[in-house]
């Protein structure tokens, strides 16, 4: 079974990229984030094309913001929007955002997740992010939805780089979200449940990124970060035959700012083609030059 996750940053804008990619890579299960469509609009613009390719669809949307989906050709059972205890924003009892959907696909409980960004350390949105992750961990630990952590795959844009090795230069991220100790501690909470970062396991020493800011030529300089993850319970992680980031999908005309993450269970039909396809166009060396993030104000 081939499982992929991709933050498409507006699925309507990405249709000319998404459909050919589905035909090329032929994933069995696809987790999408930032669809930015209502449920009805998603089915209107993509329902027929996905059905033609054999995909069942579970989508949770809220119009122009957020939105997550699971596409499956191997079954889509027990679909759940959100998770037990999911907090709202700006208050915990506010309506919940469209950031999580899960379903059982060929015996694996698959989550498509778009973790809150956090915006700025110690902001209200940052604390919301930490609470959101804590409640997700509790839900997974409690076997919510009838699946234990062992049979679970958390897929999506986690908006956290697990370690300093997952950003192009740790110094550039000082004072920013995605790399703070509380965020990384929250992410490590899933490891305590037995979930494993299957891409990093496969490529322990490689420079592997999944996101590059649109601005300042960050992609062409390969100044990125790895925030799109697949965390799998032990028995599922043991089935991983290949795990890689499809950098090719970040190239070309009107791409998302994220690249898909692809994980093959049991067999790898394309072989183990590596985390970067093709090799970086202009790989940068850490510490070679002072680089500020485009969003930096100083």
From TrEMBL:
Swiss-Prot/TrEMBL keywords: Hydrolase, Magnesium, Metal-binding
Region spans: Disordered: 248-298
Required cofactor(s): Mg(2+)
Matches recorded under InterPro entries: AP_endonuc_1, AP_endonuclease_F1_BS, Endo/exonu/phosph_ase_sf, Endo/exonuclease/phosphatase, ExoIII-like
The keyword Hydrolase is annotated on this UniProt entry: yes
Superkingdom classification of source: Bacteria
E.C. no: 3.1.11.2
Molecular function terms, GO-annotated: double-stranded DNA 3'-5' DNA exonuclease activity
Residues annotated as domain Endonuclease/exonuclease/phosphatase: 4-258
Pfam families on file: Exo_endo_phos
Database matches in NCBIfam families: exoDNase_III, xth
PANTHER family for the chain: EXODEOXYRIBONUCLEASE III (PTHR43250)
Family statement drawn from the similarity comment of this UniProt entry: Belongs to the DNA repair enzymes AP/ExoA family.
Record-given protein name: Exodeoxyribonuclease III
Organism: Gordonia hankookensis
Lineage: Bacteria, Bacillati, Actinomycetota, Actinomycetes, Mycobacteriales
């Amino acid at each position: 079974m081939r499982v992929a996750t991709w933050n498409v940053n507006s699925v309507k804008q990405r249709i000319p990229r998404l459909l050919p990619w589905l035909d090329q890579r032929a994933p069995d299960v696809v987790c999408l984030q930032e669809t930015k469509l209502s449920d009805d609009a998603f089915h209107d613009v993509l329902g027929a094309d996905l059905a033609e390719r054999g995909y069942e669809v579970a989508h949770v949307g809220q119009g122009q913001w957020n939105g997550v989906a699971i596409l499956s050709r191997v079954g889509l059972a027990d679909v759940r929007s959100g998770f037990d205890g999911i907090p709202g924003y700006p208050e915990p009892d506010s309506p919940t955002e469209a950031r999580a959907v899960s379903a059982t696909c060929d015996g694996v409980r698959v989550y498509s997740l778009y973790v809150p960004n956090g915006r700025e350390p110690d902001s209200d949105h940052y604390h919301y992010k930490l609470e959101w992750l804590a409640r997700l961990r509790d839900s997974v630990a409690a076997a919510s939805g009838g699946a234990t952590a062992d049979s679970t795959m958390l897929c999506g844009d986690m908006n956290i780089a697990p370690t300093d090795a997952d950003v192009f230069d740790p110094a550039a991220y000082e004072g920013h979200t995605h790399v703070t100790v509380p965020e990384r501690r929250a992410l490590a909470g899933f490891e305590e449940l037995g979930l494993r970062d299957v891409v990093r396991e496969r490529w322990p020493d490689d420079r592997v990124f999944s996101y590059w800011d649109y601005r300042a030529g960050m992609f062409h300089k390969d100044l990125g970060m790895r925030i799109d993850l697949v965390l799998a319970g032990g028995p599922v992680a043991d089935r991983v035959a290949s795990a890689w980031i499809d950098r090719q999908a970040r190239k070309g005309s009107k791409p998302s700012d994220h690249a898909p993450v692809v994980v093959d269970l049991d067999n790898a039909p394309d072989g183990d083609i590596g985390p970067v396809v093709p090799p970086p166009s202009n790989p940068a060396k850490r510490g070679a030059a002072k680089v500020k993030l485009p969003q930096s104000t100083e």
